[in-house]
Design brief:
10 helices, globular, five-stranded mixed beta sheet, three-stranded parallel beta sheet
Length: 274
Amino acid sequence: MVNILSFDIEEWFTYENLSVDKESEKRLEIYLDLFLELFDEKNITATFFVLGSIACSHPHVIKKIVSGRHEVACHSDVHKWLTDFSPNQFEEDTKRAISSIENVTGKKVKSYRAPAFSITPSNKWAFEILKQYGIEYDCSIFPAGRDFGGFDNYEQDVPSIVSYNGIEMKELPMGIATILNKKIAYSGGGYFRLLPYKTIKKIISSRDYNMTYFHLRDFDVQQKRKMNLRYFKNYYGINGSMDKFKILINDFEFINVENAARIIDWDTVPVVEI
């Protein structure tokens, strides 16, 4: 069984659905420190997908993650969805983000996740650009429909090889479960808070591969709450999310993307032509 632990670190960057002030910045660092301490106690290494803009504005945040022996990966520069990019704009964003992160960590960036899993059939040219800039492992495929993207006709929710226009990319997609005829990401985001832990544990136990994704704000019970159409999804279950997470990492062993990629037999995984 391969279980991957990943966090998208974007809270220090202000965009439409999130407003961060000095007080909430302090809380975010408290939560980051809490998780880093917890992972150190459990001897867990996670992958943190970070924004290039955060590496520039808050390098100490990135250095904390590096000091914990975790993988620092790329989550774009300014958290703009790929559906809003032209190929040239995406190339500039990717180049800038990777350079900013590597300047802080001193290490090559190997893994990438698009904001909101926004690589879709309409912008699969992104794989050519990721390959050009040295990305070895992509974690952007959400093999179902979703509000901000999704790749519904990508029929694999296990490690696979994306083949597009003569290039190949190792893909570690989100795992998908079907509940009440709806395909959902059971191991992160709003559904991790929404679903009973017993259900999550049963799904994870039944699979050989599980990709998790979390945000620090998924656990911040004191954050400023923005009243909008996504209020329920953003905040439901937040009061119990930390306890649920601690049970999760006690029940299962987790590793980061880079270490998972080393033990996957890539010669035997599905090759998906897109």
